[in-house]
Structure to design on (1577 residues):
């Protein structure tokens, strides 16, 4: 099960040794007897599908969960993490998958908060010494090469800046132990754009000089590029450890999902099924967000919009769905110009929106999966003002089967499903509508494992085949090139490039050029 | 799908179970709580009787005095007593009285109602349970004991107009028959407060140079009266020569505010109730003999009189049907108190038991200083 | 009452590149100050000779003292996203304790400063009780403090007993709140000190900063090593202490013990906190803003009384002002995606 | 359909990828049965200590007192269900009572209908202002509370308003008994059942639950969230109006200071003791019936058991905390505000 065996040198080299870590939640055996060593000055990649047990393992490492069995050694000393502060004190810093900064506080204060339990803390007897806190923060930010004023309120920062602050915070744990920090990056790139990812990669290389890094990601290419060694988890077990130079992307994929990857080739498109555009955006402007945006989406075609954070593409999508207003320009839906547009009207008109903030915007976690599925377009599952639970469960069962949603009981609250399965239900919520005309997808694959990604992409293609017009904000340029029929490039709120993939074949580089 | 059905079944069973339980309980008790008409007066043996005194709260000295009187009567008659604390809430008052009625003993009540409108539901509940009640202070004007029956023995109060006249006159005289006063009525919908204010206004007609600047209701509350007086002092400043309050609790709050403003030597006060602290202040000549007018009546006298009236009806010693209208809707005497005649009234408080003994000897209508003086409802001056 | 331009648009896209991230100057409370100025001017015009007098200023400050003191605790609690409804109950319990342990005409006790200490301890204990139930049993603060409200009133009623009103017998003591130093009543000076301390606590201590952190996102705060439970406990205890202090001052003002010494202070204070701009959801606001809100409401009430507005409709005026103030402050933030609870 | 593989957990536990799993269905039985259990336990305690409680019609009194509380609490529970709070509904009830008292004599049967309609309209306005100005409901309804109190004072001229004629139009509510309990109580129970059905079996109810659980999610699902919130506040106004009628039926008079003037906190307490999650989305009107009964039972029971009158408020507070601690739903994650 584990490939790391007793190694005489490890006590001196190892920054962290996990031995026989085991964790159960009720019937779920989340982590099964995992033993793993992380060496100093090493970047270890940790990969696995959603639900493979990575996050649980990380939460054990950061003191959020306590293992049922097994031991943890840091720098040769046995430790027990009862709470997050313990792991911080041991020199483990973490950049969580979700944003974990307090947006109403300043950067410096956020940096100080983790450190407050330590000797270095900028507080004395419970009093804040702001000068000290700000100076310390500036120094830490400097170390990671981020030029952010430590007094800035985090809520005012851009996304990538926040990520930098998170990394800076993770890095500063070394000042506590006076030795090498272990920094855990839990899918830091999943919300970053390409150029931002590059900044991060540079960052990780810097980190490697001062300590060790555990890098968790779904993007196999990144993992291969960044890491020295890769550990693969599946169903709670550690199934493989490989040196980066002796493994390929395909092999990793197989190890992760237990089967071979499908070719990610572009399909042959039917191409321009209809000549009248379903959506026609003309000169759309919203002050501060986007300006003079025009494009058309025809039935059965996908327009992928690419751009960095702040390009305004999210706002354009939200405007299409009625979640944001616009100051100028028009949107026409099947030839009718939209006015006083709202989410309610959009849904009624057959516009669907899969938001990137799934838990908050995409679903109502406390309601059952079946209720979520039929929330927007109850269709036949309601009779007049009344719900028809039987019809609803029938519908839900059909879709659960089609999308391989697990667990397969649609009466469970959707919040209790894993991310990938939630996303399947969110997709199905729109796909089940007969009146679906426009599908707006904001990072639909974000945070999904390869298996779920495939299913979601397949559903997008199927929708296209049924004549739905799709607007897609992809995670990666590759995704844009794979899924799009047309590609729109946006920068600073304006359209800077257009490519029709039926006539052109741009490369990622061509797109990137227009983005930055 | 199996899941949903089972859970729904479970839910239904749970609901049905709960409903059945409640239903059974309900039917079980409805058989015994059949409404007794309570029309004919039957003598109740003394040992079956429970005295109940219901007061508005327990933090007002007048109410505390009422409880004292009820206790003294309970000891004198050797009959158990229950106190109901309404905590200022009609809801609490009615439900607690009903709960006591539900215990099945024959209940003899004196209720100082929180609001006038509480009287009908309380009386009706007492009637249904075959108890006897005397209401003090507040009831709707057209809700008369003789229209309800024997179980509503009597309604009793001290005349408010008289009180207002008394204190109004004293205050006007106190400020030298010339100047400005402010008034602090009690809770606005209280007839007690309304009649006292009417009396004040009536008294002021004889003092054309005394001007009532403003009235601000202070809800019988010391704290609120303090704040309202503070505001009025800020508004009128030195213009204020006198403060009138509908009861002493409010006057004590007002005095504190005037003291804080440093004007205690310049302002005169008049109010109703002559609370023990007021007696002290009058004796000590606080301010420049700041308190110029008071009325004397006592919570313990009211409570004991009311309870005793009900008690006599319950034991059959008083034939309710034979009582005069004056005895069933009664006004009891209050006395006007000035610093000069204060000493006449201080003797009563030292011997509550003695007074209650006298009450039992003389009957509810003839015990000084609270004798029956007339029939309600009070006529407002000018109406 | 529009302070909108001073604030950044709420949904301003975090689009600025890294180099441009500089702290933006945030001018806070402009609207409230403007509203206050408008009120003062209007009332001064309506009531020449009575409103803008030293006496009236003293009255306003004296009346503002209690809500100011309570407001410090209430603000910190609301900053955490919780709420404290127990104010009036705690005031009653602490006030009554204080009166019965000071020189009074009910018993022979006179603990002097000890009475003060014990009374504040009663408040701290009730706050601690609130915090313990809230954090250990995970009962929402709304419910716990609702219960503690009644518990506090119950304690006050029990202490009051059935004897006569306990009066404070020391004139030096009872006149302390309204005596002046530098022309200002002591009650206000005390409130001023408490507010200043509160502002310092919320800016410069872990307690205050953690209250902000907890209010922003309790889970994240927890993950960032904030001992959330413990600090909630502290804040509720502090709020209890503030209420107790207000109860003591209230009793001193009244010169006697009363179970309902706190009457009317709860909703007044919460309204002031909200008008000041502290979000009921937590994480945003501050003690000084609450102080501004308190002064605004006190001036409003005082001005209405001076202007001879019928007491019957005063509550309506306050209500309208509350709604309009908050609606105006939030007008620019309105959006189809904004969640108002 | 049950799954037993570890990959598809059916029990409440964190999912394998570590996202805290919300407590699903098991464990919620207590949420459903807690409020009646608390009520029955309290009742049992009282009966043991005071055996006469039943024979004297204690239950009937509890039902009588619970009726206005229940009506207020039902509206409150619905509003709390969409994640808001209505501090003004008790004042609406009192306003309805005062209006009814002053018009019943002249308008007869029309008066109660008109007054309930008017107060429902006030609830609607409350909801509209809330939905469109986005003032937090706590602050907004605190303001409306002040306005309504003033309206009551002005309309009643700050005194008690008595029903002058046609009292029979409403008096039957407490004079007619079914199974020993007053008709008004059964009406309120039926209303609770209807609201329960609305929440469980209609799209509007599901929408309100969705808004309470996650309003943003509801917006992005294309639900008419504003309209749903307005509906909740309107329902609150409606039930408050009915509560006002029961006040008139009970005492034949109304005033700003009399019966019904202190229903706000008991109403909230009843909703919450009835298992309503203050965070929204978890409302069971049937259980609110037991919540209201518990709240009504408290003072009656305390008096019956012989708690000294001075200590009653203390007991009241303690029982509210304990009852909620026992029955509340802790299902929605660890964060408790």
């Amino acid at each position: 099960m584990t490939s790391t065996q007793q190694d005489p040198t490890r006590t001196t080299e190892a920054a962290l040794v996990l031995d026989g870590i085991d964790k159960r939640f009720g019937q779920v055996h989340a982590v099964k007897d995992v033993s793993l060593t992380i060496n100093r000055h090493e970047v270890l990649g940790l990969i696995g599908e959603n639900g493979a047990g990575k996050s649980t393992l990380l939460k054990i490492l950061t003191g959020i969960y306590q293992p049922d069995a097994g031991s943890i050694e840091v720098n040769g000393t046995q430790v027990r993490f009862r709470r997050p502060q313990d792991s911080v004190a041991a020199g483990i810093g973490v950049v969580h998958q979700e944003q974990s900064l307090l947006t109403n506080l300043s950067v410096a204060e956020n940096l100080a908060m983790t450190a407050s339990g330590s000797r270095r803390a900028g507080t004395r007897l419970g009093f804040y010494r702001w000068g000290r806190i700000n100076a310390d923060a500036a120094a830490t930010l400097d170390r990671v090469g981020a030029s952010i004023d430590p007094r800035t309120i985090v809520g005012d920062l851009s996304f990538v800046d926040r990520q930098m602050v998170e990394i800076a915070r993770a890095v500063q744990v070394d000042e506590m132990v006076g030795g090498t920090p272990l920094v855990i990056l839990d899918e830091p790139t999943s919300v970053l754009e390409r150029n931002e990812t590059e900044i991060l990669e540079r960052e990780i290389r810097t980190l490697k000089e001062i300590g060790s890094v555990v890098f968790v990601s779904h993007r196999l290419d990144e993992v291969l590029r960044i890491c020295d060694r890769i550990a693969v988890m599946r169903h709670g077990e550690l199934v493989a450890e490989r040196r980066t130079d002796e493994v390929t992307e395909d092999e990793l994929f197989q190890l992760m999902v237990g089967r071979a990857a499908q070719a990610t080739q572009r399909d042959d498109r039917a191409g321009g099924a209809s000549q009248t555009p379903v959506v026609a955006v003309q000169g759309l402007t919203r002050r501060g967000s986007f300006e003079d945006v025009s494009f058309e989406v025809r039935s059965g075609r996908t327009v992928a919009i690419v751009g960095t954070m702040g390009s305004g593409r999210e706002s354009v999508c939200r405007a299409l769905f009625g979640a944001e207003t616009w100051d100028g320009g028009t949107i026409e839906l099947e030839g009718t110009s939209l006015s006083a547009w709202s989410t309610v009207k959009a849904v009624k008109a057959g516009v669907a929106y899969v938001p990137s903030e799934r838990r908050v915007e995409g679903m109502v976690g406390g309601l059952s999966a079946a209720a979520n599925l039929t929330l927007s377009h109850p269709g036949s599952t309601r009779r007049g003002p009344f719900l028809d639970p039987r019809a609803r469960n029938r519908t839900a069962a059909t879709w659960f089967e089609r999308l391989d949603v697990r667990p397969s009981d649609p009466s469970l609250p959707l919040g209790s499903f894993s991310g990938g399965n939630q996303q399947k239900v969110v997709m199905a919520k729109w796909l089940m509508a007969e009146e679906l005309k426009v599908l707006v997808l904001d990072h639909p694959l974000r945070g999904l494992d390869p298996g779920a990604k495939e299913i979601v992409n397949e559903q997008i293609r199927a929708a296209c085949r049924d004549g739905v017009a799709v607007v897609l904000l992809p995670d990666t340029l590759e995704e844009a090139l794979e899924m799009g029929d047309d590609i729109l490039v946006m920068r600073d709120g304006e359209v800077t490039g257009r490519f029709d993939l039926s006539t052109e074949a741009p490369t990622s580089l061509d797109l990137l050029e227009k983005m930055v | 799908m199996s899941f949903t059905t089972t859970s729904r079944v479970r839910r239904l069973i749970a609901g049905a179970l709960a409903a059945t339980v409640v239903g059974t309980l309900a039917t079980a008790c409805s058989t015994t709580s059949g409404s007794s008409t309570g029309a004919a007066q039957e003598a109740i043996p003394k040992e079956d009787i429970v005295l109940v005194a219901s007061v508005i709260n327990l933090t007002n000295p007048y109410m505390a005095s009422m409880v004292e009187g009820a206790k003294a009567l309970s000891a004198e008659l050797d009959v158990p007593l229950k106190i109901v604390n309404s905590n200022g809430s009609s809801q609490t008052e009615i439900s607690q009285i009903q709960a006591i009625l539900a215990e099945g003993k024959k209940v003899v009540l004196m209720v100082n109602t929180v609001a006038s409108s509480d009287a009908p539901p309380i009386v009706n509940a007492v009637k249904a349970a075959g108890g006897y009640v005397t209401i003090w202070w507040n009831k709707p004007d057209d809700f008369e004991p003789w229209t309800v029956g024997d179980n509503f023995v009597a309604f009793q109060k001290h005349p408010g107009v008289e009180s207002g006249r008394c204190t109004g006159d004293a205050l006007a005289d106190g400020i030298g028959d010339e100047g400005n006063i402010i008034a602090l009525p009690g809770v606005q919908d209280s007839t007690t407060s309304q009649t006292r204010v009417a009396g004040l206004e009536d008294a002021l007609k004889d003092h054309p140079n005394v001007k009532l600047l403003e009235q601000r209701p202070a809800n019988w509350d010391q704290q609120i009266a303090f704040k309202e007086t503070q505001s009025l002092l800020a508004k009128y400043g030195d213009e204020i020569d006198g403060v009138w309050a509908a009861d002493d609790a409010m006057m004590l709050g007002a005095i504190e505010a005037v003291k804080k403003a440093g004007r205690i030597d310049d302002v005169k006060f008049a109010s109703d109730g002559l609370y023990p602290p007021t007696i002290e202040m009058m004796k000590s000549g606080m301010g420049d003999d700041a308190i110029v007018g008071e009325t004397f009546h006592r919570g313990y006298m009211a409570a004991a009189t009311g309870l005793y009236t009900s008690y006599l009806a319950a034991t059959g010693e008083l034939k309710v049907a034979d009582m005069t209208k004056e005895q069933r809707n009664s006004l009891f005497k209050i006395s006007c108190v000035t610093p000069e005649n204060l000493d006449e009234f201080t003797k009563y408080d030292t011997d509550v038991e003695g007074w209650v003994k006298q009450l039992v000897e003389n009957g509810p209508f003839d015990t000084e200083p609270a004798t029956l003086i007339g029939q309600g409802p009070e006529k407002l001056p000018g109406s | 009452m529009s302070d909108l331009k001073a604030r950044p648009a709420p949904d301003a896209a975090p689009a600025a590149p890294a180099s441009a991230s500089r702290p933006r100057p945030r001018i806070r409370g402009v609207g409230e100050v403007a509203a206050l100025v408008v009120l003062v001017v209007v009332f001064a015009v309506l009531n020449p000779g009575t409103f803008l007098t030293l006496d009236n200023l003293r009255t306003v400050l004296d009346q503002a003292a209690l809500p100011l003191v309570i407001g410090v605790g209430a603000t910190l609690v609301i900053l955490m996203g919780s709420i404290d409804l127990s104010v009036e109950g705690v005031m009653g319990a602490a006030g009554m304790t204080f009166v019965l342990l000071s020189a009074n005409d009910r018993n022979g006790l006179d603990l002097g400063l000890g009475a003060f200490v014990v009374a504040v301890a009663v408040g701290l204990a009730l706050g601690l009780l609130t915090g313990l139930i809230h954090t250990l049993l995970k009962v929402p603060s709304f419910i716990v403090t609702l219960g503690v409200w009644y518990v506090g009133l119950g304690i006050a009623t029990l202490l009051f007993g059935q004897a006569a009103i306990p009066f404070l017998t020391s004139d030096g003591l009872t006149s302390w709140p309204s005596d002046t130093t530098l022309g200002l009543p002591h009650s206000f000076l005390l409130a001023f000190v408490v507010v200043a301390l509160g502002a310092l606590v919320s800016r410069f201590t872990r307690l205050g900063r953690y209250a902000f952190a907890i209010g922003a996102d309790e889970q994240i705060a927890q993950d960032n090593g904030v001992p959330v439970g413990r600090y909630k406990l502290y804040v509720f205890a502090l709020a209890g202490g503030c209420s107790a202090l207000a109860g003591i001052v209230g009793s001193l003002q009244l010169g006697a013990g009363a179970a309902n010494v706190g009457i009317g202070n709860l909703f007044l204070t919460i309204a002031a906190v909200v008008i000041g701009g502290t979000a009921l959801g937590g994480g945003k606001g501050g003690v000084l803003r609450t102080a501004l809100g308190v002064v605004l409401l006190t001036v409003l009430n005082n001005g209405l009384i001076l202007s001879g507005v019928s007491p019957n409709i005063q509550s309506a005026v306050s209500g309208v002002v509350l709604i309009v103030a908050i609606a105006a402050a939030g007008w620019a933030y309105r959006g189809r995606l904004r969640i108002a609870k | 359909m049950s799954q037993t593989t570890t990959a598809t957990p059916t029990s409440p536990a964190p999912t394998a990828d570590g996202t805290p799993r919300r407590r699903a269905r098991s464990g919620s039985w207590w949420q459903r049965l807690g409020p009646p259990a608390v009520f029955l336990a309290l009742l049992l305690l009282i009966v043991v200590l005071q055996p006469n409680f039943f024979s004297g019609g204690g239950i009937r009194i509890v039902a009588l007192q619970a009726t206005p509380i229940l009506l207020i609490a039902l509206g409150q529970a619905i509003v709390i269900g969409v994640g808001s709070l209505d501090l003004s509904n008790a004042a609406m009830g009192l306003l309805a009572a005062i209006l009814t008292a002053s018009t019943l004599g002249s308008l007869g049967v029309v008066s109660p209908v008109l007054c309930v309609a008017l107060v429902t309209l006030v609830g609607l306005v409350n909801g509209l202002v809330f939905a469109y100005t986005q003032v937090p409901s706590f602050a907004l309804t605190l303001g409306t509370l002040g306005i309504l109190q003033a309206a009551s004072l002005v309309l009643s001229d700050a005194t008690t308003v008595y029903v002058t004629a046609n009292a029979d139009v409403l008096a039957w509510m407490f004079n007619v008994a079914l199974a020993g309990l007053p008709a008004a109580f059964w009406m309120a129970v039926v209303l609770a059942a209807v609201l329960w059905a609305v929440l469980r079996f209609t799209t509007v109810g599901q929408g309100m639950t969705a808004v309470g659980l996650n309003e943003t999610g509801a917006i992005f699902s294309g639900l008419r969230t504003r309209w749903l919130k307005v509906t909740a506040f309107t329902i609150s106004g409606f039930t408050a109006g009915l509560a006002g009628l029961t006040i008139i039926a009970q005492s034949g008079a109304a005033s700003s200071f009399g019966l019904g003037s202190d229903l706000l906190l008991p109403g909230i307490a009843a909703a919450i003791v009835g298992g309503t999650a203050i965070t929204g989305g978890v409302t069971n009107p049937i259980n609110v019936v037991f919540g209201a009964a518990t709240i009504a039972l408290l003072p009656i029971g305390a008096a019956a058991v012989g708690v000294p009158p001075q200590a009653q408020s203390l007991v009241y507070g303690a029982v509210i905390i304990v009852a909620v601690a026992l029955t509340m739903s802790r299902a929605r994650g660890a964060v408790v505000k």
In short: Residues 1-25 of chain C have pLDDT under 50 and may be disordered. The CA atoms of residues 155 and 302 of chain C lie 32 Å apart. DSSP finds 13 helices and two strands in chain C. The first strand of chain C starts at residue 180 and ends at 181.
